[in-house]
Design goal:
mainly alpha
């Protein structure tokens, strides 16, 4: 059992909690993701000193915060804080996680639009579980996906 495996397990555990609470309560708990972001960024930096962990968290949070400012009904601040957590754990691979999360979240949104037309725009879909899915994929394959895309 390595430090990297323990950190990956912790990262996934937080994402499971976020998925469940966002599905059930439409809420991403600050008391889980904020301390988790600090712990993950600290652990990542101790294991592999780099600014990528902090910059990933801040960059991902800023990107989603700008989306919240532009479209406040579309995302909540919990999604922003989840992005900070994901960036702290994934570093630059957070780009992959967010992209895949948004793509995964678009699938049920499109299905709702097709089935219900304009009325579907009033139905809320929690984004957290889809971001969590993207985060897990990016945790295990994000570097490879980034390398493939950039080559």
């Amino acid at each position: 059992f390595t430090f990297e495996a323990a950190l990956a397990a912790f990262f996934c555990w937080i994402l499971v909690i976020v998925t469940r609470t966002d599905f059930e309560h439409r809420l991403i708990p600050d008391r889980i993701v904020l301390p988790g972001a600090v712990l993950v960024a600290t652990a990542r930096t101790l294991d592999e000193p780099s600014l990528a962990w902090v910059l990933g968290g801040l960059g991902a949070g800023l990107a989603l915060f700008l989306i919240v400012l532009a479209y406040p009904k579309g995302l909540g601040m919990g999604d922003v804080k989840l992005a900070v957590f994901m960036g702290a754990g994934l570093g630059l691979s957070v780009v992959v996680g967010l992209f895949l999360g948004f793509i995964a979240g678009a699938v049920p949104a499109v299905v709702l639009l097709v089935r219900h037309g304009r009325a579907a725009r009033k139905q809320a879909i929690p984004l957290g579980p889809f971001l969590a899915l993207g985060g897990v994929i990016a945790l295990f394959a994000g570097d490879a996906i980034l390398d493939w895309y950039l080559s």
